[in-house]
Amino acid sequence: MLDGQDAVADEPGSATAQPSSAAFPPHELLTSKRYLGALVLGAVIGMPVAMVAYLFLLGIGQAQQVVFTKCRPPSDPTDRRRGGRSRS
């Protein structure tokens, strides 16, 4: 069971607190097999996901072209918003 003195000594601002960066220097962390394995796993998973996202956006862009150019209703020649003649 912890008493009041142990809880105060473990606070981050106290003089006896150990910095967490001393446990793992950055160079050792970046060259560890576990980190490199996680990096490779992220790349292996990320590439197909990025490809699917790209193809989805490409399909949406092509669908917009079809919908807004070929599937629009015929224009009214008297509609002034589309460059038609006025009725007056």
Would you give an account of this structure?
It contains 3 helices and no strands. Helix content is 56%, strand content 0%. The protein has helices spanning 4-9, 26-30, 33-70. The chain has 88 residues and is an all-alpha fold. The longest helix has 38 residues, at 33-70.
Layout of strands and helices, then pairs:
Elements: H1 4-9, H2 26-30, H3 33-70
Which structural class matches the secondary elements?
mainly alpha
Which radius of gyration do the C-alpha atoms yield? Answer: 32 Å
- Helical fraction equals 55-70%
Largest sheet: none
Question: Helix count, per DSSP?
Answer: 3
Features:
mainly alpha, 56% helix, rod-shaped
Brief characterization of the structure:
With 88 residues, this protein is mainly alpha-helical.
